[in-house]
Amino acid sequence: MIARIWHGYTKPENADAYEAMLKPELLPGISKVAGFRGSYLLRRQIGAEIEFITIMLWDSIEAIRAVAGADYETAVIPDNRRKHLARYDAKSQHYEITATQGIEFVAMA
What we know:
It is globular, with a radius of gyration of 14 Å. The relative contact order is 0.29. It is an alpha+beta fold. The protein has 3 helices and 5 strands. The protein has helices spanning 12-22, 61-68, 79-82, and strands spanning 2-10, 36-46, 49-58, 87-88, 93-96.
């Protein structure tokens, strides 16, 4: 399994609106894509910004390429969401998940 990790930052006044756009799916229709296993959305305040981290779980790099294209590291950010971001990572990082302990993916409401 592969974890795709990305960071984006908002001003505090844009954070709730940005977060609302990410629920229930980080990307529209992503839950129906073959190879998608689930996701986590993390949020924290850092000084004058709110940091968001998305962790998307995939079966393989090939499954990610089917959504993100050949340059699969490039971040996929819909235009309507980009306007809420003060800055963001242009590229996502990808890690092979080699072990877990006592963790199951749990959908959050």
